[in-house]
Amino acid sequence: MTVRSYRLRRGRLSATTADALDRLGALVVPVDGRPLDVAGLFGRIAPLVVEVGSGMGEATAAMAAADPSRDLLAVDVHVQGLGRLLRRVEEDELSNVRVAEGDAIVLLRDMLKVVDEVRVWFPDPWPKARHVKRRLVGGAFADLVASRLRPGGLLHVATDWPPYADQVRAVLTPHPAYEVVHAGERWERPVTRFEQRGLDAGRPSYDLVVRRR
Ligand SMILES: C[S@@+](CC[C@H](N)C(=O)[O-])C[C@H]1O[C@@H](n2cnc3c(N)ncnc32)[C@H](O)[C@@H]1O
Predict the structure, then answer these.
(1) How many helices (H) and strands (E) does the chain have?
(2) Which of 3, 8, 10, 52 maximizes ligand 1 atoms within 8 Å of its Cβ, making it the mutation to test the pocket?
(3) Exactly one of 71, 76, 116, 124 is catalytic; which is it?
């Protein structure tokens, strides 16, 4: 049986989210395993950043606005959050954001060949011992990202759950495909919604950034 890194949340879409998904459907990529025409999707050739688990997308929109020379593909299984992000994209008139609905593993493994950066900010921590196997960032994920990043490309993971930080460090630091750029305090990114909840509860963030050799 496949071990999923996410919980599928059912429930009805709000009318505004459903409307955004309808109107802005051209910006949505279904994660169906078919190779993706990235230049066609963005209408240009530019460095591609993939944000895995974009949640409600506030950080995504902020980064895209701050970095218009790069294209940002946000992937999440949570369609409500993707709809919210699309509304921000429209409001802020961002031309460099697209959203992918589905499993990031399928997107990276089957649909993308080369990416310039992968961001995984506050992946679900799965704190219970019996759920640790569901954590996204493990050895298989490190290998998959290494196979997609161009040389010099970055993988940036952030978490506020210390045992997960230990796991990420243990997987990425000795990995032969990567060299460590930064390990420690939060590093060059907006505060995310999930992170803010942790900060409010007194949990500092840990960032690990590695570069593909
Ligand atoms: C804890 S939330 C963090 C969201 C956001 N990055 C933030 O910091 O506010 C983790 C997100 O990752 C998504 N997720 C988990 N596993 C995923 C996968 N395999 N593919 C796509 N999204 C995934 C979840 O649906 C959820 O929205």
Answers:
(1) 8, 8
(2) 52
(3) 124
The Cα–Cα gap between 95 and 45 comes to 13
Q: Which fold has domain 27-212?
A: Rossmann fold (3.40.50)
HSE-CB of 52 using CA atoms within 13 angstroms: 26
Model pTM score: 0.96
* 96 has a pLDDT exceeding 90: yes
Q: Which residue has the tokens 């978490």?
A: 159
* pLDDT (0 to 100) of residue 29: 96
Of 92, 88, 60, nearest in space to 76 by CA: 60
Which amino acid makes up residue 186? R
* From 17-26, 72-81, 178-187, the region with the lowest mean pLDDT: 17-26
